[in-house]
Each structure stands twice: as C-alpha cells, then as structure tokens.
Predict the structure.
Amino acid sequence: HRLTAILAEGLRQLHHAVPTASFFDTITVHTGGHTQDIHAAARSQSVNLRLIDDGSVGVALDETSTRADVEALWSIFAVGKPLPAFAALEASAEEKIPAALARSSAYLTHPVFNSHHSETQMLRYLRALADKDLALDRSMIPLGSCTMKLNATTEMIPVTWPEFGSLHPFAPLNQAQGYQQLVADLEQMLCVCTGYDAVSLQPNAGSQGEYAGLLAIRAYHQSCGEGQRNICLIPSSAHGTNPATAHMAGMQVVVVQCDEQGNVNVADLRAKADQHAKDLAALMITYPSTHGVFEEAIGEICEIVHAHGGQVYIDGANMNAMVGLCAPGTFGGDVSHLNLHKTFCIPHGGGGPGVGPIGVKAHLAPFLPGHRMLENGIAPVSAAPWGSASILPITWAYITLMGAQGLRQASQVAILNANYIMHRLAPHYPVLYSGSDGLVAHEGIIDLRPLKDKTGITVEDVAKRLIDYGFHAPTMSFPVAGTLMIEPTESESKQELDRFCDAMIAIREEIRAVENGDIKAEQTALRHAPHTSQDLTDEWSRVYSREQAVFPLKSLRQDKYWPPVGRIDNVYGDRNLVCSCPPMSDYE
Ligand SMILES: *Cc1c(COP(=O)(O)O)cnc(C)c1O
C-alpha cells in the first residue's frame, strides 16, 4: 500500500491523473493520450499493465514489489520527463485507505500464528497435523461418489513450477503460449474421452459445470425461439447439486421416480415428458447412476427426452466408470460436466480448487461460457477465462502418462475393485442395488438399515468403528439414508481391498454379538468408537477389553492409526459453532 501511494503521487507529479481516490494496492492512471507509447514502453521492460480503455491503464503492486519497480513504472509513464524523487515522496505520501475502513482490532491472535518461528518448528507443526489425519497416504478413502484416487507425485510436481504457478490469468496471450497449448491439448483429450465436440475448462467445480451446462441449454432453446422451455426433469436418485443448479439456472424441477432397483422409472419419465412436452428444457441424469449401477435404459431415456424437444444433461461425476469404455456424447448426452478432481486426479476435499469442465455436442458449442479474453460464448461463469488453469497440468500429465489403453484399464480395474468388495461383503451386508447381471458399477451401496432395526447399531457407529481399524469411512447416508456407499477406485491393490473387507466383516461380527443378545448396543466398542490412546490409559470400565478396542485385528499391531479425538456429536457440531480459541484461563 505504501509503495502504491508513493507510485500514485509520483505519477501525479508526471502530470498523469490518478482518479482512484481510495485504494489498497491497485490504481487507475490516465495516460493523457500516450496509451500506446506507455504500453509499448512497459512491454519493452517486461511489465504488464492492465488494458482498461484508450485513455487509462490499471497498475497493481504487491508485497514483492520494490522501490526499483516503482521507479521503473515512473520511467514508463514519464515519456522522457525527469523522474520524481523517491525519498521525498516516501516521506510525504499519505495513506489512501479510508480511516473508517482501517482495522482497529487485534488480529491473528491465536497462538498458532505466533508459535512457529523457524522452519524446523513449522515443519514439525505440519507433520503433527498430518499425523492426526487419516488420509490416502495411510489407507484407502472409500468415499462413494468422490473418487478418491491417487494424486500421483509426478502429476502434482509441475503445479509448483513458476511457469504454471506464477502466470496472471489475464497475461497477454502471446506470453502464455505454453498454457494455450496445454489447454488446447486437454480440450482435445477430454473430447475424445467424452465423445463430445467441444469442451470448456472454465467451470471451477462439478456444480459450476452443471450451471454452465444448463445455461448453454437455455441459450440454445432461446436461439431456436423456444425460450419458454424451462422444465428440468431430475430422477429422485440425483446428487443434490442437480436440482440446486436447475433452480439457479431459472428452471423448474420435476422429479422422476426410481424403481426398487434404483433405476429411473421409464414409464414415469415418459409420462412427465409428455405432460411437459411444450416446456421441456432438459433432463439431468447421472450415469452410471448415483446408485452405482449402469442404468440399462439410458439410451431409451435420452431418446424420450430428445423426442420431446429437450436436451440431455449427463452428470459425468461417475466418469471413472466410463473412460475408455463408453462415452456420454455417444449414447445420448448433449452436455456433461466432468470432475477433473475426481476422475482425472486433481486432489480434492477441503473445498477445492477443482475443475468441472463441460463437454458439449456441436450444436451447443456456441453457448459455452465466454470471456472477454475468448472469442465467443455466452456470459462467463468464472472470473478467469480458463478457470483454475494452474491445476490443469495434473490432468494433462495423468492422461498423457496413462494413454488410451491405460485409461481404459483404470476404468476396468475401478469397476472390478468395486465388484470385488461387494462380492466379499454380500454374505455379511445386503448390497442395496445392482444391475440385472448382479454387478455394480465403480461403486456400490451396502444397506445397514435392517441391522439397525434389529440391533440399534447405526451407520455412524460402523463409520466411527472403521477408524479403529485404520480406515476412513465410506460415504454415509448418501444417496440413501442409513447406508454406506463404497468406491475403492483403481488405485487400491487387492491387499488393501481385503484389509478393508476384513475390517467390515469383523465389524459385522461385533454387530452379531448385539444380535445374539450377548451385549447391549450402548456397551459395544462400536458405540464408543473411535478409541484414542487416552481412552486406554483412563480407568477402564467397558465390558470389552482394551485389546478389542484398539487391536480388533491382529494385523493392526503392526500398523496402527491412533485417532486424536474420540466420539463426537456430529450433528451438534454441525449446528453449533464451537470456538477452539484457548480459554481465558490460559491467559491468566
Ligand atoms: C461430486 C458430484 C457433483 C458435484 O461436483 P462438485 O465438483 O463437488 O461441485 C455432482 N454430481 C455428482 C453425481 C457428484 O458425485
């Protein structure tokens, strides 16, 4: 801020008006008719100024800027005039942050911000946090619908390269030719994977891709003089983002029923498409479905929607079951989003950043999200033309390393792994949905509701108990309450799948003890899970042994994850903000 104030004052001395009265680090400068000369002088010194209009440019400094940068900027704007004296301006330049906005309270007062002063301390702090975490570097994360596959180091390293990480999203395109190539390659690769004709990498999440996709559908209908089409059919099995997106895109949601096998009820779909034929805008459908099955009627479903003038949005979050095997653009989709942070190896969790590109058939290509830096398209859905561009090298590297054959094999192994788990668990827990061949797709749902009815042991008890066995829980109660949805991905070996199944089967035996009346649900290790090392050293009055608590399988003695906290009340925690600041007594 200080340097920006000095810069602005010097520019005024050089007779350039600075209309920005209050600022932090960014100002607008009038060029006095010298716009072209100023841009040319800037380029020759490797400085990028923001293009605002014919009479003004934008300048922003940051915490890495120096006195030399300020003087270089003055010389660019001076057009031959003598430069202002830095030292004099440094003494006199005034703050330009309005007093009313200046912070008066203390900030970052928590000790964590003031405790780690050396690199060694910081390293150990980060390690201590990592030790508490139950992440993919310890065990599989079988979160159904999330596709928690390996984010390979080779794919991740280039993100740290300044050539990818330090480029401004609005840098002139002739300075970003490598990025242009990366983007073009990736769009092409994703077209091949999906069977679509064009791809936009702009959306930053799957949900944002859904939004961009529905905007494209809406704009397409308008271009055909059918702007009244605003009904969006969505099966009851859909991910919650689908109806939310349809709402945001100004469409009206009509729910289509599913049958007992979890498939779309085609008769109901046909009836609702008939009923809304004049106003049908789209169907949003996930394939393979959120129930973890390859919906056999998918081709027919797409045909029905097309026959009624609607467009088909295929939610591609489950693309990990399809890459190299089948493609949404070839079996009836008009537009799909992909989740590069699921299928294509970008890390996720903690809110991103993600990439949710959309692929479209040619007729929708003119309605992809645009940007003032792009040649065509409708309104943008992100501030930057290529969204989270800096993480695209991960997906580029993944696809390039795998090749067509490798990608197909990954899909096959992902499906095989899910079916292996379902097959091993089926004698112990009912598998909720499967296709007519008895198989699931890349994920499957086991039903714990009958056991709960019999024993009172809940899906949450099982999820928490899995932590004692060293596993992150599968997805709980989505898409069906009281169930667990398991997705192992192709990243897991047979040993790891067996380790997980062994844990689930051992847990089933623990539940059986309640079934048999040997122990009450409230007394079980299941209900008290997870068990911390502190639990063991506190006085022990449980009806099960300490060994049963923390080493229920022998193999755990070799490699044990110790949870840092015991059972918490999830619902209470979600509904009540709990301050984790140190208590007042710590200050006394
Ligand atoms: C993950 C997911 C989404 C949403 O994607 P985000 O990137 O989390 O916004 C949409 N649909 C399905 C089926 C998903 O699994």
